[in-house]
Write a structure and sequence with these properties.
elongated, ferric iron binding, DPS_DNA-bd_CS, Ferritin, mainly alpha, about 160 residues, Ferritin-like_SF, oxidoreductase activity, acting on metal ions
């Protein structure tokens, strides 16, 4: 038995928002996996600090992917959940097989967090135009997290003067 969804958002708008959220989900999951990989493989004089920082970041993203996927489901659309789907949808560059230097890891993560923030900002416009406040709120939170994390990571690359 299928029950119609009547939450005050037109079906075409719900589908457009869910498509955008699917891209946010794919970007977040791809960045989560990259961050977890870097947590495992970081080396060098800043190992302890970066290892702990990366763990905090991937843990936060792991929790957020569930929130994003559940919002997609609340809109009446199935959430993507395979590597094939994520690779089709993601803008974040996946990790290569090579293990980069700690500094390069941080630079790649800055780029990844900025990418997720841009994707979320694009979807925010769609949600806002459709009057989808819960999605707009979720995206606002995600943009804040990714912009702050990018700033913190960028700060580790700056030289003291």
């Amino acid at each position: 038995m299928s029950v119609a969804i009547n939450i005050g958002i037109e079906e075409k708008d719900r589908e457009a928002i869910a498509e955008g959220l699917s891209r946010v989900l794919a970007d977040t999951y791809t960045l989560y996996l990259k961050t977890h990989n870097f947590h495992w493989n970081v080396t060098g004089p800043h190992f302890n600090a970066l290892h702990a920082m990366f763990m905090e970041q991937y843990t936060e993203m792991w929790q957020s992917v569930d929130e994003i996927a559940e919002r997609i489901r609340a809109l009446g659309v199935f959430a993507p959940g395979s590597y094939a789907a994520f690779s089709r949808l993601a803008s974040v560059e996946p990790t290569s097989d090579d293990v980069p230097s700690a500094e390069e890891m941080v630079a790649q993560l800055v780029k990844g967090h900025e990418t997720v923030a841009r994707t979320a900002r694009q979807v925010f416009k769609t949600a806002e135009e459709a009057g989808d406040e819960p999605t707009a709120d979720l995206l606002t939170q995600r943009m804040q997290v990714h912009e702050k994390t990018a700033w913190m990571l960028r700060s580790t690359l700056e030289r003291a003067s």
